[in-house]
Amino acid sequence: MIRKFTYLLMITAGLALSLAGCSKNTVSEIVSEAEDKPVAEDTSTVEDAPAVEETPAVEETSEVEGTSAVEGTPAVEGTPAVEETSAVEGTPAAEETSTVEGTPAVEEAAEAGTASPVENTGDNAPFDVIWIGDSLTQGSFGDDNHNKNNPQAPWRVLGEISGKNVTGVGFYGYKTHDIFWAYGEYDGIKDPNITYVYWVGSNDFHDSPDNIKYVIEETDRFNSNAGITKYIMLGTTNRSDMDPNAYIGINKGLEDYYGDRYLDIMPYVEFGPDGVHLTEASYRKIAGAVYDKLRSMGYL
Question: What homologous superfamily does CATH list for 109-296?
């Protein structure tokens, strides 16, 4: 029995050692497999994973580095608000300062036919005769365009007849005071070496025949201030919007005051359709009468 028991114990011990050795080998193999396992050596799932290197969130960060909103959006570099700053650099208010150079006062003077300013005076004066007046001096037909360039303007005709250098300045609708004021305001020549022809007063007399005294005062002031002594004064007409006989007393007063320098133009007056302005033939006849008068005075 004892032998059997001992034999059984030995068998049991052997089995136990065998099992222990087997377990040891199995654990060693598992550890070896864990150390040599490709998962441990080849961590491409961690290093090369698309989620890390090529994820859309990483690649498309160009939307942050180069988005049009930062580097080149129209709102920053080329928005209409930036390009159209021409409204500051070239606005109509800056470019059309014509509202300063072409004010109504200047335009009105241009329409009235004012001569361009000429600075030469004395022996070098460019004109022999300057004719100053209102719309009749312009040779106007009264058709609202002021006729400032009319070939029948009497001062133009005088230049043709005489062969002299003649200019004229007519202010449409102006009275005598305003005519001389405007002439000076726009640098009209005042030179005692030049001969002047005055055809003023028609619009003053339209208001009242008594205005003859103002016509004479304004003309004398102009002559005195400029030292002018070579001049003639033309009479007025019997325009249709006045008393038909008013011109008689007016012209008598002008003749009495100016003497030889007065020229009666009534023999040459022929009215146009408006009964105030003259015909082309009438303007030419008056220019001829002025030429004869200036020659008789020794001015030409």
Answer: SGNH hydrolase (3.40.50.1110)
> Other C-beta atoms within 10 Å of 137: how many?
27
Average pLDDT in the chain: 72
- Which residues sit opposite 232 in a β-bridge? 197
Phi-psi region of 173 (alpha: psi -120 to 50; beta: other; left: phi over 0): left
Measured distance CA(167)–CA(159) in Å, rounded: 8
Can you list the alpha helix ranges (DSSP code H) found in the chain? 2-36, 38-41, 44-47, 50-53, 56-59, 62-65, 74-77, 80-83, 86-89, 92-95, 98-101, 104-112, 135-138, 154-162, 176-185, 202-207, 212-226, 246-258, 280-296
For residues 20 and 259, what is the distance between their CA atoms, to the nearest angstrom?
A: 162
Give the pLDDT confidence of 56-110 residue by residue, as tens digits.
Answer: 443 433 333 433 333 443 443 444 443 433 333 433 333 333 333 333 333 343 3
Question: How do the domains of the chain map onto residue ranges?
Answer: 26-60, 66-96, 109-296
Question: Which residues lie closer than 8 Å to 261 by C-beta, 6 or more apart?
Answer: 231, 232, 233, 297
Residue type, 176: T
178 C-beta neighbours (distance < 10 Å), count: 17
Question: b or e along 115-129 (b: 16 or more beta carbons within 10 Å of the residue's beta carbon)?
Answer: beeeeebeeebebbb
Mean pLDDT by groups of 10 residues along the chain of 300 residues: 51 47 41 41 40 40 37 40 38 36 36 36 69 95 71 96 96 96 93 97 96 98 97 97 96 98 98 95 98 97
